[in-house]
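input
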Amino acid sequence: MADQPLLQLDNVTAGYGDAVVLHGISLTLPENGSLAVLGRNGVGKTTLLLTIMGYTQLRTGRVLWRGQDMSRMPPHRRATQGIGWVAQEREVFPSLTVEENLTVASRPGPWDMAAVFKLFPRLSERRRNMGNQLSGGEQQMLATARALMTNPALLLLDEPCEGLAPVIVDELIAAIKLLLADRRVAIVLVEQHTEVALELTADAIVLERGAVAHAAPSAQLSQDAATLERLVGLRVAATP
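output
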């Protein structure tokens, strides 16, 4: 069906071993959609991404990909289905060059070496450098570019701006905007910079104690100072 969601979580409860972290999570992401996942530290944001990738223990509910149940599908199969993952730790290969980091993940599609170098010109300049010779910001760009080289339909971004210099954050934000404008990939973004996350995405959810405490269009939530302060701890300055 033309209006079939790209990704759907239906009453998902999940965690690690005996520990349950997510409680009854339901969400829907359309093709080429964009979703911000917000909340204070420790509420389950990264666990939600790991559950989409298949790295947690699913206790109840279903994870659907284009209408098909992939709840029991292993992570490597989900990657081949079209889910790209950019971990908070970046996890670039330190002993491979930038080019080698990219080619090792390459799959056919519009995102090739030329395309990612156009998106991240810094990587083109560093193409012969080893992964461990890059700055933290350059490693983040490389991790994102490597995920794009798999030509995903969905890109999961976990705190891409964390700990980076403002100039690098600006470059990453610009790249994400270009990705969304291109409308070839959907994005789920976990980001502590709440204003940035809401500016970039169409929709947002806020997690609290592993459950969805609030869901709204991003533009609407960005104007809801009371909810942001209550659930995220973000104080929005009053307009003079």
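quick obs: The chain has a mean pLDDT of 91.
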